[in-house]
Automatic annotation (TrEMBL):
SUPFAM superfamilies per the UniProt record, alphabetical: PLP-dependent transferases
Residue ranges of the TM segments: none
Highest taxon listed in the record's lineage: Bacteria
Family affiliation: Belongs to the class-V pyridoxal-phosphate-dependent aminotransferase family. NifS/IscS subfamily.
Protein name in the entry: Aminotransferase class V domain-containing protein
Catalytic activity, reaction form: (sulfur carrier)-H + L-cysteine = (sulfur carrier)-SH + L-alanine
Biological source species: Nostoc cf. commune SO-36
Amino acid sequence: MSLTAHKVYGPKGIGALYVRRRDRRVQLAPQQHGGGHERGMRSGTLYTPQIVGFGKAVEIALAEQTTENQRLTQLRQRLWEQLSQVEGIHLNGNAEKRLAGNLSISVEGVDGAALLLGLQPVMAISSGSACSSAHTAPSYVLTALGHPQQLAYASIRFGIGRFNTEEEIDIVAKHAIATIQSLQNKR
């Protein structure tokens, strides 16, 4: 299991890797050769301030987990309630069983690239996972869910985080609705 600190508001550049001792299914190769630390998996001196920052970020995340999940769920729902008023918008995935700060939608009748370009002046937005953002193919997850290829191409993912407010959600919704309707009217 790999973990990265910046996903829980910790410092960038530090992470953790849990490797099972017994019955390992995967053999990992060392990424840095030298002193043979960490059972030969890596070498070099770890940067203590980053480790402490990672630990503190996890501590804060665990302490605030319940209330923060409720707050993020409310913000996500606020955004969805506004966006869902537009014709041709589809929620990707289960309406209830989803990450609190994640809203993925697909939009009928619009070009996905034009949608991204139209939204970027107001918000940081993604059309897929960070690990596959260099690929132009539609999301295999969305096509596996039964979305036609054209609809999967016109999907966007909103990430809502610790520092987002209701006011920001309303600004994003207003701009997204205007952009979507403008693109739908051009068809």
